[in-house]
Design brief:
Blueprint (H helix, E strand, L loop, with lengths): L4 E7 L8 E6 L4 E6 L1 E4 L5 E4 L1 E5 L17 E5 L8 E7 L11 E5 L5 E6 L6 E7 L7 E6 L17 E5 L2 E7 L7 E8 L21 E2 L5 E9 L3 H39 L70 H9 L14 H40 L21 H5 L2 H27 L2 H5 L7 H22 L6 H23 L7 H21 L4 H23 L10 H15 L7 H24 L4 H26 L6 H21 L10 H5 L13 H22 L16
Organism: Chauna torquata (Southern screamer)
InterPro entries: SID1_TM_fam
Membrane topology: Multi-pass membrane protein
């Protein structure tokens, strides 16, 4: 048993000019303080305490058989020209050593800090120090220090040694045996003289009195419990669970591919494959595992029933179908099969009822190359974005490990399992699903792409004239974005805090934007946005997100400017969508918009020419204006999540509109996309439930954030946010499959019969 002695002193004198000095000399150290003991706060405020109690550095029990005496000298001195009364009391601590799984209650104050000893049991390699209190304030600090004298147990020096974190009602520190060669450590508890570090305010009686000394009595009741942490076997189980859970998706994809292969072989042997097969399955098109043609030469369609434009040359007179190599393809402006395209497209796009053949007239090689730019650009963006992010978070983790300041990173400390230099390995491991499922989606898209190319080489007439034109560039970009979301989310969770939250959301914006672009491209392949303009728009959004994080907390001017940009951008995009890209956005846009409003709404108030589009855009603008008003009124502190909410709501609105219009047009949902839609809805609902289980918040102080910390809920290793990572990865994967397979029922429908909406 380790012996520890505590010295209590009290002086009735409040004369700061002549304090009483106490010096305690031990065999291995010297400890000194004065009474009144003075603490400094913000703006040079001072707080004095007449009662001081300090624990002396303990001595290890001697190896000799007979007990040895411990000699302590206490020197008391003062320069006062008059007598000063004081009280001195030396006591032996009975409960200095903490025991495993046994709660211990005590009281501390700024002038009466406490610290205790803990020794690792033989079979324990890691422990969690859990500290709780019923009171939020006064603000306190919990520190873990090596067995070194002197012990730093005052507000001005507690940060000099060991690992520490601030605390209001709850704190937790994970300690590993390997970090302490002596297999023991001190747990130090310090009460701060002010509460500003924990989010509190300075007492009202102090405002305006900077130079006055305040004798505040601040005590806090605390309870400390040290419990064993998880064993290494739990780490192994968690890693197996993470990888096997998502590798099962690979197995499921292989099973689906094999089943469809068998079905196609049976139909082929029975001679029952035809354009009007009724199952939506053609020789070169099968849901998930096979492919539909990539649009081929769009001009081969008979336009007599659906297009007012001229009929273009057939694919037999064009370039070979198998020449879908980028080497022979130049820029879009250099090669176009539409004669007089500028005048022709305006005639076509002004029709009241548009069909897919009207918006899929450009040469498939040009359009295919246009969408492949999405893939190559996002790879470039990912590399240039991820490398400095990785370097920065490594620096953050190094600073945490070197300084011991656990207020830098906002972990869920009750479920933060370290591994190597990483403080919360579980939050990083749970992002493996995004990377594995993103890669699986790339493989599924690659298979479709390969089967498409084979069909093009066969020059099957049905691959030329039927179904939605398939361009895979956006799908490849979505797969890369899903993988990068996993990488950057893992980087963010290396040290989650206010400064790097945009790492976790940047590719979420891109995923939502790419999904909307892909949904629009499905029936508007010729007029979709180019990769350059799309990524430039994403860059503007990310810049706004950074500005919002910096200035959005208190800057009303920022919210006014952002709301104006949001509303104007919504109107401009709505105009482009409604007029199919024929409404130019330049300095004369306001004059033309006023002219359209006057002629269509005032001069003759008539029914909109494109009613379905108008309904979608009205609802979409109402939603976006509502977001703008909400942001202007409430000014949410989490600006990055606010923008993400705008993207997600717009995506869900557009997807719902697309599915409704698809069903209205007497199109059907095949079993595979129907299953993906249901799975997407169910998994997203479950994922969002765990997402809103807030476990930490960098919008608050670190101590306030720790009040939200909770214990692990899965395998004793993963917390609610880790489950959100798992489920959101699966939900995004199913969402991508919805976009990939949604229109597989149209593979046997002529393009001049497929409506545009």
């Amino acid at each position: 048993q380790v012996d520890a002695v505590r010295v209590y002193v009290n002086s009735s004198s409040e004369n700061l000019q002549y304090p009483v000095l106490f010096v305690v000399r031990q065999q291995k150290g010297v400890l000194s303080w004065q009474v009144p003991l003075i603490f400094r706060g913000l703006y040079q405020r001072t707080y004095n305490y007449q009662e001081v109690s300090r624990t002396l550095c303990p001595s290890e029990p001697a190896p000799e058989k007979k007990p040895s005496d411990q000699i302590i000298f206490v020197d008391v001195a003062s320069m006062a020209p008059f007598n000063i009364a004081y009280e001195l009391l030396v006591t032996r601590l009975e409960n200095f050593q903490l025991e495993t799984n046994k709660p211990f209650n005590f009281t501390a104050s700024p002038s009466q800090p406490q610290y205790f000893l803990y020794k690792f049991p033989q079979d324990v390699d890691s422990v969690i120090i859990k500290v709780v209190s019923d009171a939020v304030y006064p603000c306190s600090v919990v520190s873990v220090q090596d067995i070194v004298c002197p012990v730093y147990d005052l507000d001005h020096n507690v940060e000099f040694n060991g690992v520490y974190q601030s605390m209001t009602k709850q704190a937790a520190i994970t300690v590993q045996r390997k970090d302490f060669p002596g297999e023991q450590f001190f747990v130090v508890f310090v009460i701060k003289p002010e509460d500003y570090a924990c989010g509190g305010s300075v007492p009202s009686s102090i405002h305006g009195n900077v130079n006055r000394t305040w004798n505040l009595q601040r005590t806090k009741n605390l309870q400390v419990t040290i419990v064993p942490s998880i064993k290494r076997s739990v780490y192994i189980q968690a890693m197996f669970f993470s990888f096997l859970s998502f590798l099962s998706f690979y197995l499921g994809s292989v099973v689906v591919a094999f089943v469809h292969y068998i079905r196609v072989r049976r139909k082929a042997s029975a001679g029952r494959l035809s354009p009007e097969d009724g199952s939506g399955i053609m020789t070169s098109s099968h849901p998930i595992t096979a492919s539909t043609p990539e649009g081929s030469s769009y001009g081969a369609i008979d336009e007599s029933g659906s297009s007012g434009g001229r009929q273009l040359s057939s694919p037999e007179r064009g370039p070979p179908a198998g020449s879908d190599t980028d080497s022979s393809v130049e820029e879009e402006s250099d090669f176009d099969t539409m004669p007089e395209i500028e005048s022709d497209k305006n005639v076509i796009r002004t029709k009241v009822f548009l069909y897919l053949s009207d918006l899929s007239r450009k040469d498939r090689r040009i359009v295919s190359k246009k969408y492949k730019i999405y893939f190559w650009n996002i790879i470039t963006i990912a590399v240039f974005y991820a490398l400095p992010v990785i370097q920065l978070v490594i620096t953050y983790q190094t600073v945490v490990n070197v300084t011991g300041n656990q207020d830098i990173c906002y972990y869920n400390f009750l479920c933060a399992h370290p591994l190597g230099v990483l403080s919360a390995f579980n939050n990083i491991l749970s992002n493996v699903g995004h990377m594995l499922l993103g890669f699986l989606f790339l493989l599924i898209v690659l298979r479709r792409d390969i089967l498409h190319r084979r069909a093009m080489e066969m020059k099957d007439v049905y691959t030329m004239d039927y179904g939605i034109p398939k361009h895979f560039g956006l799908f490849y970009a979505m797969g890369i974005a899903l993988m990068m979301e996993g990488v950057l989310s893992a980087c963010y969770h290396v040290c989650p805090n206010y400064s790097n939250f945009q790492f976790d959301t940047s590719f979420m914006y891109m995923i939502a934007g790419l999904c909307m672009l892909k949904l629009y491209q499905t029936r508007h392949p010729d007029i979709n946005a180019s990769a350059y303009s799309a990524y430039a728009s994403f860059a503007v959004v990310i810049c706004l997100a950074v500005l919002g994080v910096v200035f959005g907390k208190n800057g009303m001017w920022f919210w006014v400017i952002f709301s104006m940009i949001h509303v104007l951008a919504s109107l401009a995009l709505s105009t482009q969508i409604y007029y199919m890209g024929r409404f130019k956005i330049d300095l004369g846009i306001f004059r033309r918009a006023a002219m359209v409003l006057y002629t269509d709404c005032i001069q003759q108030c008539s029914r909109p020419m494109y009613m379905d589009r108008m309904v979608l855009l009205i609802v979409g603008n109402l939603v976006n204006w509502s977001f703008a008003i909400f942001g202007l009124v409430y000014r949410p502190r989490d600006f990055a999540s606010y923008i993400l909410g705008i993207f997600i709501c717009n995506l869900l609105l557009y997807l719902a509109f697309y599915i409704i219009m698809k069903l209205r047009s007497s199109e059907k949902l095949l079993p595979i996309p129907l299953f993906c839609i249901v799975a997407t809805a169910v998994v997203w609902a479950a994922a969002l439930y765990f997402f809103f289980q807030t476990l930490s918040s960098w919008e608050e102080t670190p101590a306030e954030s720790r009040e939200k910390n909770r214990s692990c809920i899965l395998l004793g290793f993963f917390d609610d946010h880790d489950v959100w990572h798992f489920l959101s990865a699966a939900a995004l994967f199913f969402s991508f499959l919805v976009l990939l397979t949604l229109d597989d029922d149209l593979d046997t429908v002529r393009r001049d019969k497929i409506p545009v909406f």
